[in-house]
Specification:
Elements (H helix, E strand, L loop, with lengths): L3 H5 L33 H19 L5 E6 L2 H8 L6 H10 L2 E7 L23 H17 L5 E6 L14 H31 L2 E6 L10 H24 L3 H11 E6 H6 L4 H10 L4 E6 L1 E6 L2 H7 L11 E4 L5 E4 L4 H7 L6 E8 L9 E3 L6 H10 L3 E3 L16 H16 L3
Parallel strand pairs: 1-2, 2-3, 3-4, 4-5, 5-6, 6-12
Antiparallel strand pairs: 7-10, 7-11, 8-9, 8-10
């Protein structure tokens, strides 16, 4: 049995890529992210596994181990590591009992993610806050315990943070944002050091995967590449050289190995970016794409009928950033899907609207509303297969979907999505 003390140890210390990611046999289904289920406490996480994940496995992978995309809130992670709670060993035994494995953790939502107004709070604490660093470190300790020796795993996280409004005339806001970014970079460098230390001590290769999202500091492909080059590498290499006596090459290798990207295909679709183009540009820039989340955004052509239909997708829980592509290619952006957004959209008749509302991958459209899953082309999946990039299905909006888009149960919905993704990945 693994050493529990090693798993719970969380310190920031001062490396060969093992590449042992848990791969799927042709008979196995793809993993799905547990953030679709309410699970703010450890008990709720365990219940989601035994109630829902086990039922999904029975239908999509009855004869093989089934990989889960684990989601742990900060409270659940702390509870899992607390001496008074069921131990990591107990949790590992629960997974083994049901023939489940874990190779990735969703570390994006820190707190509540269901049944309450999440909206922009989902980005808090951002990477300028020590709470985000400590939370992510705990997740890394947990994942290093659950991964087999020599394996690779990843933790998705917020794309630095939510983008603040434009600078004021005085420039004070711009100065504050510059300072905020410097703190974020410093904390990410510290996190990369910790992951590097884990790789040495535990022989687990863990990547922190920043997940670009609309209206965040990292949103587009350009945002990501420029930030890596101009912020993370520039500041990180200098800091590691000055404070850890690492050579420039050593520092750059450490950062590129442990700080990567989680490419959520819904998010890039909302920005009207092609996922294959984004993927190839990341690769050309030397960025590590640690995980791809297969998801689809809601899209439509602006009309009175479409705007009326979109009202059913306004909800008080999640943020649904909305973009409209104008005739000359410009993008009109709205922070959320609201009545005010729909009123403003009337001026853009016949233009394409996309909103950050995750719809099931199997939704084929109904003549008015459609899905961006058409961006997930055979060429995209061929590229992903060739590079063996880990995939995960992530549609967390089941509870807020309009009734006509919702399957009878969450398990039914997940099974349909996984079947769709399984066929799509194989060009069937």
């Amino acid at each position: 049995m693994k050493n529990l003390e090693d798993a719970t140890l969380f310190w920031f210390g001062t490396s060969a890529f093992t590449g042992g990611y848990v791969t799927l046999s042709p008979m196995q289904a793809l993993p799905y992210c547990l953030n679709i289920h309410p699970g703010e406490s450890l008990a709720a996480v365990r219940d989601a596994i035994t109630t829902h994940a086990v039922a999904v496995k029975a239908r999509v992978s009855p004869a093989h181990a089934y990989p889960l995309g684990l989601r742990l809130s900060a409270a659940a992670a702390q509870e899992l590591l607390a001496s008074s709670a069921p131990s990591l060993e107990d949790f590992e035994e629960l997974l083994a009992q049901h023939d489940l494995t874990v190779s990735c953790i969703n570390g994006f939502p820190y707190g509540a993610f269901h049944g309450t107004a999440v909206k922009t709070a989902v980005y808090e604490p951002d990477w300028s806050k020590p709470e985000r660093l400590a939370y992510t470190g705990r997740l890394a300790g947990i994942l290093s315990f659950l991964l087999p020796e020599g394996a690779t795993g990843n933790i998705s996280t917020v794309p630095i943070g939510y983008r603040n409004p434009s600078p004021t005339e005085s420039g004070k806001r711009a100065d504050a944002e510059e300072q905020r970014m410097a703190v974020c970079v410093r904390q990410l460098v510290v996190m990369a050091e910790f992951l590097d230390d884990l790789s040495i001590r535990k022989n687990r290769d863990i990547v922190l995967a920043l997940e670009p999202e609309p209206d965040c500091l990292l949103e587009t492909t350009d945002d990501v590449i420029h930030w890596f080059e101009d912020e993370l590498l520039y500041q990180g290499i200098r800091w590691l050289s000055n404070n850890r006596q690492r050579t420039r090459d050593e520092a750059e290798a450490l950062l590129r190995r442990h700080i990567g990207i989680c490419l959520d295909t819904c998010h890039f679709a909302v920005a009207f970016e092609d996922p294959l183009t984004a993927l190839t540009r990341f690769e050309s820039a030397g960025l590590r794409v640690a995980r791809i989340q297969l998801s689809a955004a809601l899209r439509t052509t602006v009309s009175e009928d479409a705007l009326q239909r979109l009202r059913a997708f306004i909800d008080p829980v999640y943020l649904h950033q909305t973009k409209i592509r104008l005739p000359r290619g410009q993008i009109a952006a709205y922070p959320d899907l609201t009545e005010a957004t729909l009123d403003a959209a009337r001026e853009q008749t016949d233009c394409e609207l996309r909103t950050h509302f995750h719809v099931p991958l199997y939704f084929e459209g109904d003549g008015v509303l459609a899905s961006t899953h058409t961006d997930l082309t055979p060429a995209f999946f061929e590229h992903v297969r060739a590079r063996r990039i880990p995939l995960e299905v992530e549609t967390y909006t089941f509870d807020v979907l309009p009734p006509d888009l919702r399957a009878p149960t969450v398990v039914d919905s997940l099974v349909r999505e996984l079947e769709w993704a399984f066929r799509a990945t194989r060009g069937v």
